[in-house]
Fold this sequence. Notes:
By secondary structure, the protein is mainly beta. The chain contains one helix and eight strands, in the order E-E-E-E-E-E-H-E-E. It has one helix at 104-116, and strands at residues 11-16, 21-38, 41-53, 60-68, 75-80, 86-89, 120-124, 127-131. A six-stranded antiparallel beta sheet has the order 1-2-3-4-5-6. The protein has a two-stranded antiparallel ribbon with strand order 7-8. A hairpin with a 5-residue loop joins strand 5 (75-80) and strand 6. The model is unreliable at 137-141 (pLDDT under 50).
Amino acid sequence: xxxxxxxxxxxxxxxxxxxxxxxxxxxxxxxxxxxxxxxxxxxxxxxxxxxxxxxxxxxxxxxxxxxxxxxxxxxxxxxxxxxxxxxxxxxxxxxxxxxxxxxxxxxxxxxxxxxxxxxxxxxxxxxxxxxxxxxxxxxxx
Length: 141
């Protein structure tokens, strides 16, 4: 793993679920490039941790997320509720289990942070992830 930079400043984001809009405070607490061996070959991409606070100060969520090389969205690897109660926990980049994507508005925040940290050459809604240090590779990396 590479060095992890400091957390971003909290941002106020409105999540539009259709009928109701919810305003949250979101902070990217860490983000880094990560590569690990996986069941079907190397798992290479971005590993991020995101903290979300809803209107009630004691109602927060913490997420472990990943976006692998070539993917077009951020996938939730782990979700923890208030007091660190686990709600959903998978390993980094696990794609052989049921996948849950993060809300698009939060994904936009993560995409901006990946660009700010210089980790992504290409990233965005429906844009496959290209890491800044990507080079021609084989399936073993």
